[in-house]
Amino acid sequence: MKNQLLKGDALTLLPTLEACSFDALITDPPYASGGLTAGARQKPPSEKYVQGGKSALHADFAGDERDQRSHLRWMVMWLSECARLLKEGAPVCLFTDWRQLPLTTDALQCAGFTWRGITVWDKTEGVRPQLGRFRNQAEYVVWGSKGSMPLQRRAPVLPGVIREPVRKADKLHMTGKPTALMRQLVRICEEGGRVLDPFAGSGTTLVAAQLEGYSWLGCEMTDHYVEVAGQRLAAL
Amino acid sequence: MKNQLLKGDALTLLPTLEACSFDALITDPPYASGGLTAGARQKPPSEKYVQGGKSALHADFAGDERDQRSHLRWMVMWLSECARLLKEGAPVCLFTDWRQLPLTTDALQCAGFTWRGITVWDKTEGVRPQLGRFRNQAEYVVWGSKGSMPLQRRAPVLPGVIREPVRKADKLHMTGKPTALMRQLVRICEEGGRVLDPFAGSGTTLVAAQLEGYSWLGCEMTDHYVEVAGQRLAAL
DNA sequence: CCCTTCTATGAATCGTGCT
DNA sequence: CAGCACGATTCATAGAAGG
To answer: Family, per the entry (chains A, B) (predicted)?
Structure first.
């Protein structure tokens, strides 16, 4: 199966793809979680996620200004499209932060998937330490499957907590994940299978999939990141 | 303030305590999460959580056979009682597993607390591997506060992920937590404050509180564990 | 006392087969 | 057919046993 990076909105592109043609869904959708108030959430991500008065390092990305209710509906919409594209028993991994974790497990299950657990990404460094509080040093991968997941799948035992620091040189998107982290995660896919990432961003999931011997298809609607991801994938 | 270990049901005991007299709520309630079917959930914990036909190492504990709906209602009931007992701004820490995490964040917020984050207990590797799956090696601490939480509280910066293996000699309850883990957690309480644990079990939270210089009050309804906890605390 | 070898265990889960 | 009981499975680590 040919690898492809498609430019456009996942909700438009997914319906054009062939049913039952993917072995795993692994993606990092917009969290829509920055900001305590609805108003603060509607600022573009480059203002929302930047500390202090620093200028934005990364281009804005789309799809991050919904309120909780709309965000859930939107998650269920694209997840349901993905359910059609996945083979029976295929695993699903969705990144989320603590604030959106319950919404993410709801969305996964509303879309008809079986929720099977949570894997923790431990960033190891304290992000914004605050006296008298716990550090906010983890993000979460909500994972599950389309229907039952036979034990004879060709996939290894995978870690439930992945300790991986964020390295600037390896972060090409505002919410980009370390390549080493993604290389661990994609291994939930059956050996040599085909990985779907409808929110490819700077393409780290696709790069990891390629490095681990999978084929892949990604969608990304922001021109800038389609170019970034394209270059990274071409350089492999 | 005198330290006390009370014997009885939390829902009965909590209303008898004085309002605004605690600086932190730190507890590990029954999760009611084992078992795929209603029937399986009603088995005692020693059968539910132990593999194979091995004989039970620890005595059973009560309150683990509710379904999701009743479990939520019950959580909100005792949490609301605790809200009355806590001072304004006091932190709350609730243990939970991946399956009950969304329910726990709901319960915390339904009872009127502000949800502030999740802290991860990483049990480290060695926990029941399964091919083709992520290891289930973490439990979670949902934490928050009664109302706003001033930054000038006398409490240190605390870790967001705590790596701590389970040691047999340090585990006196089927679901007992390591003392080292609890010593880290209780430090969310303001220096020298008073800690409440309505589900004391073998008393690890109270032991940790004592070791870290806090005063404490615990409730436990199972005779056996009241005795175990009493002995541990007396031995300090 | 230190090192090596061995064994037991885990807040499970899946699939089968019986009721 | 739905629901439930039961056996099989996975491996890093702790802790015991032995040299």
So the answer is: Belongs to the N(4)/N(6)-methyltransferase family.
Token pair listed for B99: 């399956």
The gap between the terminal CA atoms of chain B, to the nearest Å, is 18
DSSP letters spanning B91-152: EEEEEE-GGGHHHHHHHHHHTTPEEEEEEEEE--S-S---TTSB---EEEEEEEESS---TT
**pLDDT tens across A124-181, in order?**
976 788 999 999 999 999 999 999 998 888 999 999 999 999 998 999 999 999 999 9
DSSP states along B173-224: STTPPPHHHHHHHGGGS-TT-EEEES--TT-HHHHHHHHTT-EEEEEE--HH
CB A172 within 8 A of CB A207: no
Q: Note the pLDDT tens digit of each residue in A52-80.
A: 444 445 655 556 667 888 999 999 999 99
Q: Which helix (H) or strand (E) holds B73?
A: helix B68-85
Q: Give yes or no for A56 touching B (CB within 8 A).
A: no
Q: Whole-angstrom Cα distance, residue B178 to residue A128? A: 27
Nearest CA to the C1' of D8 belongs to which residue? B52
For residue B222, say whether its CB is under 7 Å from any atom of strand C: no
Contacts of B9 (CB under 8 A, 6+ apart): B219, B221
* Cα–Cα nearest to B66, from B34, B111, B112, B110: B34
Pick out the nucleotide with least CA–C1' distance to B166. D14
Straight-line distance from CA B99 to C1' D2, in Å? 24
Distance of CA A31 to the CA centre of its chain: 9
CA distances to B9, B49, B178, B179 from B168, rounded to whole Å, are 28, 16, 9, 12
Q: For nucleotide C8, give the residue with the nearest CA to its C1'.
A: B54
Which domains are seen in chain B, by residue range? 17-190 (3.40.50.150)
Q: Say what the alpha-carbon torsion angle A154, A208, A95, B161 is, to the nearest 10 degrees.
A: 90
Amino acid identity of residue A48, one-letter, is K
CA distance A96 to chain B (A): 12
Residue of chain A whose alpha carbon sits nearest to that of B93:
A134
Say which residue the tokens 């996939």 belong to: A155
Question: What is the reported pTM?
Answer: 0.93
Bridge-based pairing of strands B215-220 and B114-122 is: unpaired
Task: Judge contact between A175 and A154, C-beta under 8 A.
Answer: no
DSSP structure string for A105-116 = HHHHHHTTPEEE
Closest nucleotide to residue B129 (Cα to C1')? D10
Chain B closest CA to A103's CA: distance in Å?
8
